[in-house]
Amino acid sequence: MMRQTRGENVTMGMQAVWDHIRLAAERTPDNIALVDDRSDRQLTFAELVEDVEAAAAGLGAAGLRPRQKVATMLPNVLEHVIAILALHRLGTVVCMINPRLKPEEAGMLIGDADMAGAVCVADPAITAAARDALPMDAPVLTVGGVTNGTAAFETCRANGYELPPWSSPDPEGVAFVLYTSGTTGLPKGVMIPHRATDGRVLFAPVQCGLRHGPQNKALGLMPLFHAVGFYSALVTTLSLNGTYYVHSAFDPPVAVEAIGDHGITFVFGAPAHFHAMLAAPNFDPADMKSVDTLVYAGAVMPGPLLDRVKPAFPNAWITNIYGTTEVMNALYMPDPVGKPLQYRPGFYSSVRVGRIGGGVDEVCEVGEEGELLVDAAADATFLGYLKQPVATAEKLAGGWYRTGDIVVRRPDGDLELCGRVDDMIVSGGENIHPEEVETILMQHKAVREVAVIGIPDDQWSERVVACVVADGIDGDTLDVWCRESSLADYKRPRDYAFLDVLPRNAANKVLRRELREAVKDN
Ligand code: 01A
Ligand code: AMP
Ligand code: MG
Fold it and tell me: Where are the beta strands (DSSP E) in 59-167?
């Protein structure tokens, strides 16, 4: 797409994330953009722009330069918002790493991507891993203190580096790298171009009922390092001139209180967020009346939970968004209560149902299960996986992105979501590939065979269960083994089933469907 600029400040054709925010600041400089939950600090849009530009200059003074890749590895704190926006304003490629990963895995991601610096929590193990993975003298900035000779991000402000005036970047340039966990090995870096911004930001107002204006008050529940938390909660709210209420760490009673106290209007969460908030002792539907827009994504919301969510947020219009980090908003489902998982294509998105294992032009009949394919020509589509041309080619062959999710087209044209083509587990909106967990468990000397499966769960949508053939060992011991391994804690099995033998087919492949049925009924 060709970009044309007129005058100094007007961008035509494409808006990058910073364009959305600086233009919002021009519209309502004095409205509140951000409210911090830990300090009660409030930043107007004008102050946000000023602080981001000062931090961008500070990061430049620390040695970072446009187009370099820089990691952030932080929870949803205010400083993370500023760090992401400042790195983006400086022109670096912001690579957002899940702060729940163990230092070993985070270090491998940083090293593998040839990053030039990092902004992370002041945890000695994390900063040591970052230092080892980065070139000598690369800046490591920390939030919440300093450790291993890091510099404090909070005081990294304009310091001699002259920040060049903003000019809209190349639409095809990489803006952000978000990670999605891989079948084997490290998570894959999803390279997202600047031109993807509009489609990733504007679908929420178009589809979910948000209107422009400072009446929007969003609670920052979704993690910033995922596509939804960054684009749909943070950037969408700011680009609509609304206020984003930072929620530093998900704490259900605190989240419930924040909604009532601030009169939150927009809540975007994973099903697990709603499960937890409804269980909080202070939850009262009478305090939830300000919420007019409730959106969930990331995992299937179990029917009984959805039935409880509707009356719990009495004034909310509910929308279920199905999407992926790679293509964003592929499908949506307005007013989902009481319906099967029945979606229509999302705005800016075009989809088809392809034969499982077939070419992209082998389209399924109505009623026939197939893989959901998303037209990769849409602007919101990613560029590819960082340094993984083979995986990229596989996922984008023929110009359609393969989601790995099974759908069936109904006679009325809607699409019903029915499961996965592969064995991926989605727990609490986080992807977990069985192989990752199986590899760790197989390293224990008492384990002879293992198959990791997901079974339906009220809290997590799917719960990770390990089916193990082992000699004289119990679940608690294996749990300690997993915690001490390089596997992130949220990926480890919540239950163990000990079996004499794993069910296998003639080709010796584990029959996971059979295992799921057996374990579910126990
Ligand atoms: O036994 P312990 O102490 O280790 O247990 C800890 C954690 O390990 C465990 N835990 C989990 C999960 C999980 N996802 N599955 C299973 N266990 N997360 C945490 O819970 C215990 C408490 O640990 P915590 O750190 O205090 O956990 P919370 O902060 O309460 O975390 C739970 C959350 C639900 C908040 C968290 O899992 C979360 O933030 N989930 C949302 C993830 C998300 O943002 N998903 C969307 C990703 S973008 C891709 C996508 O689906 C999409 C959709 C639409 C993309 C684009 C579009 Cl348009
Ligand atoms: P990710 O690979 O992290 O980008 O997560 C995308 C995956 O999460 C999709 O392929 C689906 O399996 C799952 N997912 C996302 N949104 C929904 C939803 N609304 N309902 C069911 N599954 C979802
Ligand atoms: Mg997910």
Answer: 69-73, 93-96, 117-121, 140-143, 151-152
